[in-house]
Amino acid sequence: MTTPTMSFEKVSILGKPTIHVGYDIHTHIVQTIINDCKSSTYVVVNDANLTKVPYWEQLVTEFEQSLPKGSRLLRFVTKPGEAHKTRKTKESIEDFMLLQGCTRDTVVVAIGGGIIGDMIGYTAATFMRGVRVVQIPTSLLAMVDSSIGGKTAVDTPIGKNFIGAFWQPQFVLVDIKWLRTLPQREFINGMAEVIKTAAIWDADEFTRLEVNANSFLEIVNNAKFIDYKSTMTDEIYNISDTNIEAILEHTYKLVLGSIKVKADVVSSDERESSLRNLLNFGHTIGHAYEAILTPQALHGECVSIGMVKEAELSRYWGILSSTQVARLSKILVAYGLPVSPEEKWFKELTLQKTTPLETLLDKMSIDKKNDGAKKKCVILESIGKCYGTSAHVVSDEDFKFILTDETLVYPFNNIPKDQNKIIVPPGSKSISNRALVMAALGEGTCKIKNLLHSDDTKHMLTAVDLLKGANITWEDNGETVVLEGHGGETLTVCNEELYLGNAGTASRFLTTVAALVKSSPDKDYIILTGNARMQQRPIGPLVDSLRANGTKIDYMKNEGCLPLKVHTDSVFKGGRIELAATVSSQYVSSVLMCAPYAQEPVTLALVGGKPISQLYVDMTIRMMDAFGVKVTQSETEPYTYHIPKGHYINPPEYVIESDASSATYPLAFAALTGTTVTVPNIGSASLQGDARFARDVLKPMGCTVDQTATSTTVTGPAQGTLKPLKHVDMEPMTDAFLTACVVAAVANDGKGTGNVTTIEGIANQRVKECNRIEAMASQLAKFGVETRELPDGIQIYGLDSIDELKVPSNSSGPVGIDTYDDHRVAMSFSLLAGMVNYNSKSQDVTSVRILERHCTGKTWPGWWDVLHTNLGAKLDGAEPLISSNVNSNKSVVIIGMRAAGKTTISKWCAAALGYKLVDLDDLFEEQYEKGTIKEFVAENGWEKFRMEEARIFKEVIEKYGDSGYVFSTGGGIVESAESRESLKKFASEGGVVLHLHRDIEETIIFLQSDPTRPAYVEEIRDVWSKREQWYNECSNYTFFAPHCSTEAQFQKLRKVFGNFINMITGKRQIDIPTKRSAFVCLTFEDLTEHVDSLNPITYGCDAVEVRIDHLAELDADYVSRQLSTLRIVTDGLPIIFTVRTKKQGGKFADDDYVTLKNLFNLALKSGVEYIDIELTLPSDIQYSVLNNKGFTKIIGSHHDFNAAYNWDDAEWENRYNQALSLDVDIVKFVGTAINFEDNLALERFRFSHTTKPLIAINMGKIGQVSRVLNTLLTPITSDLLNTAAAPGQLTLQQINKIYTSMGGISPKEFYVVGKPIGHSRSPILHNTGYNLLGLPHKFDKFETDSAENVKKVLLDGNENLGGLAVTIPLKLDIIPFMEELSDSAKTIGAVNTVIPIGNGKFNGDNTDWLGIKNSLISNGVPSSVSGVSGLVIGAGGTSRAAIYALHNIGCEKIYLINRTTSKLQELKKTFPEEYNLVVIETTTDADKLQDTISVAVSCVPADKPLDEELVSKLERCLTKTTHSKFLPTLLEAAYLPTVTPIMRLAKDKYQWNVVPGAQLLVHQGVAQFEKWTGVKAPFQAIFEEVTRN
Ligand SMILES: NC(=O)c1ccc[n+]([C@@H]2O[C@H](COP(=O)([O-])OP(=O)(O)OC[C@H]3O[C@@H](n4cnc5c(N)ncnc54)[C@H](O)[C@@H]3O)[C@@H](O)[C@H]2O)c1
Ligand SMILES: [Zn+2]
């Protein structure tokens, strides 16, 4: 296309040329509509996003200006997004058109993506029984797919596209210029359908797409954002801008190509009865993924994954070749699409959502294509062609196999004994790579067949292409590669680096090839590089040898490894070349293959001893012969070769021999099953050592082997007659030893001599993909087969009969066979798996599970397909066995400097989680046996200590990492690299590595004061600066422990830590409030300077927001200290961590992403309850938070500070959709009110957006009412803050007052009832709370001892009654008037709280126990204890509440003491058995107690002297404690005197922690307050008022 402007092409559909495709054809579009769809009324409908596209303005303006007289143009704009593709939107368009008087001659013009096209198409289809519609598709998906074919629809809550019609448009006018502004991800999304269409129908187009992939992705990925000012609206929009003109021809062709195919298919099958089905390739499986992953994943992305899986299904059925599957997945990757839900980037984009097999199958069962209950799928036959003309029925079993990575192998017992199969394994890797090098250097055209498609060959081909060695083309649908070589003449340096991944063969071969390359006018070197692993693999000996021969080569990073800079201004001289060949034969082959091109004939001498893998050297020499170069071996010198000068002559065709190692699997299959298999292209003349496997291994084991020069046939003996191999040296065929092992496992000699097969010569197999010898031994053991490892091999003890083969299991059931990501291990065991239960006649035999089946992809991706489809094995797929709650008992490792408080906090940690505590230093000394660590170090040095420590740690963590331990470590553990690795690994697997951190200055002071281990300031600072980074990188959590100067602070810290550890381990859930709730925004620069006011500031709040952007400093230490301070003073109130950028109204620099990332990372590590992420942040930052959020909740926020858009604007809609696709936990939208109507618009928005919890408010004075109407987590300020965080912010008191005045809160009356109540503190307690929070309620006294009176005066007919606090003597008498009783009221047998439940009815509750429980918890008792008994003193009503409370926190037994025990026995009878109440009758009884008592509640009157007998029992109980888990704590129930005799006894004599009764009183009242009002009570203020005298 030379002049793209104005040129277009017409495509026919259903017999009419109504699809027009072009570039920049708006004039043509307008003219077509006006001339060919004459009408009095045109209605242009588009979504609000399109309005921002400059091209839209151009089109619509031109349309308006060109309108003929008597015609009018109406415009209607919808909200963007699938959420608005509804009947409701359709209705609003219809109403609009009716109001505007549209009649049957109306023409509707749909401009937009598929959503608009579908919805407007359907609207047109039903408006006045159908009016004309013109489609102007603007997204790639709409252009190539949705606008073509007349399918229209809207969504319903039940499903997508369920309501619709077939309605053909008058025209589909495609202008690819629209694609300029299409967002990048949408662009790529559309490519999935383009590739799909080519894959099913148009092989040539597919090839063209392959060729243009790179330039496409480069352009699309480099799309920019630009500002565009609309002249129609006068607003500035930030829009995406892709330079499609740079790939115009490609884009035009791909759009046109797709449209043509779709038009063709639709024309032959408009109503989708068969052929049109084919367009659903990839959609059966794709839709299933989409149903789970939407809205995080887009349609095209899911279809991309679906296509790969469905292509694999076709390969599984033996229809599609591996090459074709590889081509498909390669092109999808090249266009930026995902090919597996497990791809890392895609997994992050979809927020780690899982796609369980059963759900996928369920979703598939509701597909429209299905045939009743049968699932259907389109099967590809080759690229460009489908198998058959419609979809095919697929069994669940086959779907399961395709969708999983774990394979179930069933016994091979259904395979007929006379089965005779021909199997062609993929080409040999070694031969493939050699053939490519020689053909590239050779003269003439060579067709290479059966080439292995692997990383090595891929990189090799790319390099050959870049270096212009040969022209590369493909034939037979990519099965044959054709190289047109130029005799090495054209090799020239390229600008790109040669990136070789981890391809070892390619990198070794190409290093010498590089020495032959010629410089270009402006460059005289080549860079060869690879991935991180490749940059560690050796290449030194080859480089040494080439350097010695005159080639200049530099190492760019590590000596002896890639990346290399090979200079091309030097020459490859030739002559005598010496090479050390004891490490790799690939060096030898590399020099050999390039030697003919040296300036002089080469004599290659292999020095340094016997060269390794002689067979591979022989292979190279024989292949060079086939390419016309004869190498001769020196007659005088050993390991020396003469290579003449010359060049290769390419044979017209070169068929790569199949891989002989791969061939061992089908051959062994024959051996095991007694059937016959022929491998037709490997025989005795083979170049590969493994070709001997049949003759040297299977034959002596009893198989019939028929080998010609070029083929091998094996027939297995009758079942049970395979013989062990006494001894075999497999040095020439090491890779085949794994196959030999599984055959040997069932070989027996019938003589009872142990059936031993001994394999030697395979030591190198310990350093392959895994330690293969060990792997075979451990996995064979799972089948019940014994082995013995030898220095150079392995012995296998064959079973006497295959019936002894076990289904691999452990105590809890079947287990899988580990494959170590090693293709050969997987393939070997797939064979043995089929021999288990081979003779079983039972119907439901257990299958054997092979894990990670994909690993065979390295050399034989189609192995499972061959096993299943060609060889006849029954296979199935399955979900991993590991249950989802493996993490629930993940251990915790605590690291940090000496004196950071590890010992104490580790204890707290263990107690809070109920874990066992292990101190690693103690463990070390235990293992060392001979003394302390200090002594060990004195004897062996630090280095040795660190080594040992690392070893022990690794061992312990591997063994107990999942078993609920807390490991406290020595401060220096991070000094060892091994330990750091272990820590990081543990953290990455879901374990907690907690860095305990304390201020370094405090640490110094502390350490200097330690008389046993005094330290020097400089020393400590040095250590810290050395380790700080390590602590950070090894830990996934951090806890900052400030210095505590009082016991109370210490207890608070303990509680805060308990909160923290329970939060990060998921044992404490953060519940997003469901009632009216609020959070205060802290704007201090330094919270530690406002410690006294922080608590009052948070009164009534459900959370507190720290505006990090307001802090004075932003380094980790400073911020940690702020968070820690806040937690302690607010008693663990949930924290919202917010870094507000300037753009969004805050103070944080807009583009300081580095600091921002660090801050978010710190927030996650600190386990804050909420993190606010702005929706305008770069998505990589958002995803990095979302993907690591753990149990933290995420608030996705957006602020319109400048009042740029109102609540009906599409911006909010788009932001809401974005929040849904990011799957944030809470959406927070803040607009700005300019007039009061903005508040009403906001309420409408709130009302219609309920998918996610939403905080939505308007800023500014006018917007204040929105802060009152918002229910969830309203941001508030406080009188104690010097500045409000945002304009218009109100205090909670103000909000409640306004809300009350609007009728939102109705004033209630509350009373305390009973007698005497003259001194009751309840009125002051509650009224203090009401006043502080601005609540309109009143609390009064009502003194009476008659329950009837209470009923008559208060309960009956008092609509304003909010509740009653009931005290003596009415706690029992009131019960008859209650409609229902709470569990606590029932068990305790008394009511102290009356709660109205409507209709004049009441609930009787008891909060005394809550007062007891909360008093204990706020004084350091864990909210749930284990291994602890409680003690209750006294036998009255409060004792009953105490028993209920102690049972509730988990006391396993509760002991009861009193002056007289008869009342206790009565009391005991009224409690359920499981309370385990034990009455201590005598002091002797008390002496005999075995349990640990750590919590006690005293409920005896405190104003009388204590009974002697009771005291002596009590004293004995108080001694039954240990101080290990938490301080033993006694709560006094009596309010006065402040210190009672029991308190004194417990504290002074037994060092118990004692809690005065005032706390109980307030906690009880606060519990009532919160139950009645639903609002969090300001505890501190209430406490002060109540206890003030
Ligand atoms: N009828 C069919 O045969 C058929 C086939 C496939 C898909 N569909 C339907 O198509 C819909 C998906 O279509 P889609 O992927 O086009 O989504 P879409 O309509 O939502 O468009 C994608 C996004 O890009 C924006 N956009 C579109 N063109 C733009 C342009 N030129 N510049 C800037 N922004 C632009 C849109 O406003 C939207 O936000 C789904 O509802 C699906 O069910 C229908
Ligand atoms: Zn589709």
Automatic annotation (TrEMBL):
PROSITE patterns: DEHYDROQUINASE_I, EPSP_SYNTHASE_1, EPSP_SYNTHASE_2, SHIKIMATE_KINASE. Residues 1558-1582 form the SDH C-terminal domain. The keyword Ribosomal protein does not apply. GO terms for molecular function: 3-dehydroquinate dehydratase activity; 3-dehydroquinate synthase activity; 3-phosphoshikimate 1-carboxyvinyltransferase activity; ATP binding; metal ion binding; shikimate 3-dehydrogenase (NADP+) activity; shikimate kinase activity. Keywords: Amino-acid biosynthesis, Aromatic amino acid biosynthesis, ATP-binding, Cytoplasm, Kinase, Lyase, Metal-binding, Multifunctional enzyme, NADP, Nucleotide-binding, Oxidoreductase, Transferase, Zinc. InterPro entries: 3-dehydroquinate_DH_AS, Aldolase_TIM, Aminoacid_DH-like_N_sf, DHQ_synth_AroB, DHQS/DOIS_N, DHQS_C, DHquinase_I, Enolpyruvate_Tfrase_dom. Residues 1-396 are annotated as: 3-dehydroquinate synthase. Residues 77-188 form the 3-dehydroquinate synthase N-terminal domain. PANTHER family: AROM/DEHYDROQUINATE SYNTHASE (PTHR21090), PENTAFUNCTIONAL AROM POLYPEPTIDE (PTHR21090:SF5). This is Pentafunctional AROM polypeptide. It comes from Maudiozyma saulgeensis. The lineage of its organism: Eukaryota, Fungi, Dikarya, Ascomycota, Saccharomycotina.
